Amino acid sequence: MSQEAFPLERTRPGGLSNAGLALAQPVLTSSADLAWSGANAGDTDTDTSVYYIIPYEYRNTEEYVKYAQAYMIPQYEGWLKDGALSGYEVLLNRYTVGDPWDVLVVLRYRDINAYGRRQQVLDKVRATLKDNAEWQAYHKRKSDIRSETENSIADLVAH
Predict the structure, then answer these.
(1) Which tens digit of pLDDT belongs to each residue from 84-139?
(2) What are the distances in angstroms from CA 152 to CA 50, 61, 89, 134?
(3) Is the predicted pLDDT of residue 3 greater than 50, yes or no?
(4) What are the structural domain ranges in the chain?
(5) Could you say which DSSP state residue 102 is in?
(6) CATH class of the 32-155 domain in this structure
(7) Which helix (H) or strand (E) covers residue 146, if one does?
């Protein structure tokens, strides 16, 4: 395979900039596609942003995509509307053969105070979705569709 096949990996190993590489070395790189994303107009990464990273594994890609569109994305959009969340990205691993993850969710909170309101905002948005029959059906069986592994909280270290 030619070197052009993985240009990002050659120029930014692990997706890290030179500043990032000065702080850490990548241990594992996964090829992924951005499946869904959203952000409030004008919101970008800032020094106060807090990132909540959630890896998931799933049984079936088609089933997961339907679940994400009907269950996850409406919640993320509600969190954006609330203003606590300033952006989100949902990445699908191109090679879903087990560890470390099939789906990686990156939630960008405006700041530590917005992150501290996470449960309150989650409950508030879920209350607005409780009459949505499709959302409710997925809510009841989400553990049959995907499993969550260890979550991480991160700060932006370099732009």
Answers:
(1) 899 999 999 988 766 788 999 999 998 999 999 999 999 999 999 999 999 999 99
(2) 10, 24, 15, 29
(3) no
(4) 1-30, 32-155
(5) S
(6) alpha beta
(7) strand 146-148
